[in-house]
Amino acid sequence: MTDALQAAPTASGPTTWAGRFLDSDVWASFKRSKLTMAAAFLTLLFLAVAILAGVLAPQNPFDPAQLDLLNSRLPPIWDAEGQTPFLLGSDEQGRDIFSAILYGLRISLLVGFLGVAFSATLGIALGLVAGYLGGTVDAIIMRVADVQLTFPAILIALLVDGVVKAVLGGQLDPATTLSVLVFSIGLSFWVQYARTVRGSVMVEKNKDYIAAARLIGLPAPVIMFRHILPNVMGPVLVIATINLALAIITEATLSFLGTGMPETMPSLGTLIRIGNNYLFSGEWWIVAFPGIALALLVLAINLLGDWLRDALNPKLR
């Protein structure tokens, strides 16, 4: 009898992280949704072409030596007046629109990812502190968050961007301008992370494993970041995915208003602002193709965020 029990195979699940993920409800939900798979493919495609822009682009739009004013405002290549290698036409500086979109995607995604990383780090840290410590610290942080919620994110970003540029001086190099954009966008979205994490921490800190951690003498930072934080990351991932699209839109809005990236290093928003000046003169391609690229990118990320929100919601399983 004992030999039979020892010889009987034991059922065990996947032991690796990848195996557990492929066996999870989240992956099953992803495979069931054709729209989500298309959105993921489109997002990865945009990310890949942005990373490989230096290889795929027929021209470096940031290099003045490669620009020729004689090639300015050319229509797309399928038009009778189109020329190679300007697949989607050129702008007023003789810049290839297709190349500018690839390089602009890189900047827009870079600002979006860095802005989300900064806002998530700040919001998670403040939310952990507010939820775990409570009392006066919690009241101060939450009242600051409540005040910021009364203003739209774009106004906060404009205010922070204007104040920082006034302190540093009006003329900033592209790298400093990008840093200012990341800082202003990050300060615009930290509140959502802080309020969500605070609510989750207030639930988690009353559980037995936190009481046990306190009994063995673990310091508060260790309890917050090593034990509580992993258990509140589900909602944070959903907020981060949705906020990535919002950060890209915010950067495009700031650039369109003239307070974002300069024309010498344009993002998608800057390209749209440049093309808007020539829309009514017939050069529609200068604004149309960057606008389509921005719309598709934001739509794909939003669809992923919506799917992730539903997939991680236990009430919908």
For the residues shown, what is the average pLDDT? 84
Number of helices: 14
Task: Please indicate the percent range of residues in DSSP E strands (runs of 2 or more).
Answer: under 5%
CATH topology: MetI-like fold
Through-space gap between termini = 41 Å
The count of strands amounts to 0
What CATH architecture do you see? Orthogonal Bundle
Family: Belongs to the binding-protein-dependent transport system permease family.
Keywords: Cell membrane, Membrane, Transmembrane, Transmembrane helix, Transport
InterPro entries: BP-dependent_transpt_permease (IPR050366), MetI-like (IPR000515), MetI-like_sf (IPR035906), OppC_N (IPR025966)
Subcellular location: Cell membrane
Describe the structure.
Residues 4-11 have low confidence and may be disordered. The chain has one domain (33-59, 93-316): MetI-like fold (Orthogonal Bundle). It starts with a helix and ends in a 6-residue tail after the last helix. It contains 14 helices and no strands. The chain has 317 residues and is mostly helical. Residues 105-305 form the ABC transmembrane type-1 domain.
Question: Which labels suit this protein?
Answer:
317 residues; mainly alpha; MetI-like fold; globular
Give a brief description:
The chain is an all-alpha fold.
Topology of helices and strands:
Layout lengths: L1 H6 L9 H6 L2 H8 L1 H18 L1 H4 L40 H37 L1 H15 L3 H16 L5 H31 L3 H8 L4 H9 L4 H24 L11 H9 L8 H27 L6
Helix pairs in contact: 4-6, 4-14, 6-7, 6-9, 6-12, 6-13, 6-14, 7-9, 8-9, 9-12, 10-11, 12-13, 12-14, 13-14
Protein name: ABC transporter permease
Subcellular location: Cell membrane
Main location: membrane
